[in-house]
Amino acid sequence: MRASVAKSPVSLGLLEHEDALVVRRWLGVFLRQHNRAWVNVRGLGWSDAEIDAQVVATDLVTDHWTWLLRAAGRDSSMVRVARVDGVPVGCVSASARLDDYLRTHTGVLDWVYVDPSARGHRIGTLLVDTARTWMRGRGLRSVVVNVLADNEPAMALYRSAGLAVADVRMMGSLQGTDDVKA
Predict the structure, then answer these.
(1) Per-residue pLDDT tens digits for 109-167
(2) How many CB atoms lie within 10 A of CB 1?
């Protein structure tokens, strides 16, 4: 697909039920990457097979696909799919929420994903810019996103959109912490 991405125009459209096969595959990759990172820092020692089994057993992909479909139908959120020759190559979901601490409305980049075969063609930039335009159209003045600490390509994308690290979420195991003094 890389050659067609380089030569064909990218179109943006609404999330459609017909996108399920591709987007659910992306969600599976995304969820497995995140769960692997969280399992590792929490010292759970799960194998890749155990992580896969957990994603399947808890129906995480279906939960997230259903969430995307609902988000696509709300006024307070948006979901767009980037396509090349009618084939999905990326997706963005964004929403407007009340910030828990500042108590102001802010834009949230809920999910950005670009198919590996389409990376390096500025599709991520197009998706983030589309979300930011949607946010500005709703009068929002700020944006937040969560990203895995070792996902440097995503960090670079968000930095290029003017975002900066403001805080860090830390996780760890409680095993062997009994001898830690407060």
Answers:
(1) 999 999 999 999 999 999 999 999 999 999 999 999 999 999 999 999 999 999 999 99
(2) 14
pLDDT at 1 over 80: no
> In the sheet where 10-14 sits, what is the strand order?
10-14, 77-84, 87-98, 105-114, 143-145
What does the mean pLDDT of the chain come to?
92
Q: Domains plus CATH for the chain?
A: 9-160 (3.40.630.30)
Q: DSSP assignment of the chain, as one string?
A: -HHHHHHS-EEEEE--GGGHHHHHHHHHHHHHHHHHHHHHHTT----HHHHHHHHHHTTHHHHHHHHHHHHHT-TTEEEEEEEETTEEEEEEEEEEEE-TTT-SEEEEEEEEEE-GGGTTSSHHHHHHHHHHHHHHHTT---EEE---TT-HHHHHHHHHTT------------TT-TT---
CA 86: distance to chain centroid? 22
The CA–CA distances, whole Å, from 153 to 9, 10, 44, 137 equal: 23, 20, 27, 27
